[in-house]
Amino acid sequence: MATGKQVVCASCGFKTNPPGSVRCASCGAKLDEGGPKSKRPARQEDPGRRYQQEGISVQWLFIAFAVQGVLTAALVFGLPMVVSLLDFEGQNGMLMCIPVWFLGGMLVGMISPGRTFIEPAVAALLVAIPSTFLLIQSQTVRSMPLFLYVIFAGIGILLTLIGAYIGERIQLGPPPKTAE
After folding, report:
1. Who contacts 60 (Cβ-Cβ below 8 Å, separation ≥6)?
2. Are 12 and 68 contained in the same domain?
3. Are residues 84 and 144 in the same domain?
4. In angstroms, what CA-CA distances link 85 with 22, 81, 88?
């Protein structure tokens, strides 16, 4: 690594990485040993790994849990308390949770540095357990069997993973063009 100058990321072009950095502060890509004028920039080393996550960040897991928890509490449980016309009990609550978790995953994917797909999905799982339990307990008229709650929660978690991936793609921009 260059010791005196800022390091430019070959993957996203971020110019203010501190000297000695191993990863880009913006996109999380590994920084090249030779800097931007290296013979093999990071984007040509392995383009297939551009969108792959390399580890789990506990910090972003907690942030994703907070985002998913606040969005679920506000939109699924809090909004019906303020607007009496909305009634998200039972089945309607689960149908509302799915897009809320998708948007939460997309939001975390867009704001997190690096590639974080797993953290929003794990956070959605942790939020889905009490949310599903509360929605089962609150069902009066719009009731459905327990296994459907589990299926809806699973669909919500999968859509959270898709939302996080879409958020990461939005953050990273289009894939680099290959020289042919």
Report:
1. 108, 112, 116, 119
2. no
3. yes
4. 53, 9, 10
**Structural domain range at position 123:** 58-172
What's the Cα-to-Cα distance from 95 to each of 10, 107, 131, rounded to whole Å? 42, 19, 12
Same domain, residue pair 84 and 158: yes
In the block, residue with structure tokens 């894939």: 175
- The one-digit pLDDT tens for each residue of the chain (180 residues) are 445 677 788 777 777 778 777 777 777 777 765 544 444 444 444 555 655 667 788 999 999 999 999 999 999 889 988 988 888 888 888 999 999 999 999 999 999 887 788 999 999 999 999 999 998 888 887 678 999 999 999 999 999 999 999 998 888 777 667 666
- The amino acid present at 99, given as its one-letter code, is P
150 and 168 belong to one structural domain: yes
- Asked if the structure places residue 178 within a domain, the reply is no
Number of domains within the chain = 2
